Amino acid sequence: MPFSALIGGKVFCMHGGLSPILKNWNQIRQIRRPIDPPNPSIAIDLLWSDPETGIHGWKPNSRGVSYAFGADVVGAFCYRMDIDLIVRAHQVVLDGYEFFARRKLVTIFSAPHYCGEFDNAAAVLTVDENLLCSFDIFRPTTNRIAISYA
Fold first, then answer.
1. Chain segment 86-114, per-residue pLDDT in tens
2. Which of 14, 45, 127, 150 measures 20 to 30 Å from 24, CA to CA?
3. 78 domain residue, yes or no
4. DSSP assignment of 34-88
5. Domain that holds residue 133
């Protein structure tokens, strides 16, 4: 499974976030799979790093693996890599999606009522052939259906 995707050369997608050692796309292409990503590595950062409001640069992630990064990191990365948007997941957001860094990064979360503990919506991001992004939002239902597994 790929660690990331680049849509139309302008929308960069991954599960977690950015890496302080990621400088070009070839570094991602060179990641051998399967892999148990070492820490630190670009692979672990693509899976585990998170944006964080109120910080500048990089700091250790509260998850105990990878990093947290500030809006300044997002802006510099988008400029250096000539991209318009970073799309990532990995964190519950109440409306299903949440922008960061002046709309240069968006977190998408696609599991409504996550683990039965959050009253969050889910979102799906669609990118059309002109790279226009749109969201479909799915609110949690109030009528829960019991599911039994055979």
1. 999 999 999 999 999 999 999 999 999 99
2. 127
3. yes
4. S----SSSHHHHHHH-EE-TT--SEEE-TTSSSEEE-HHHHHHHHHHHT-SEEEE
5. 4-138
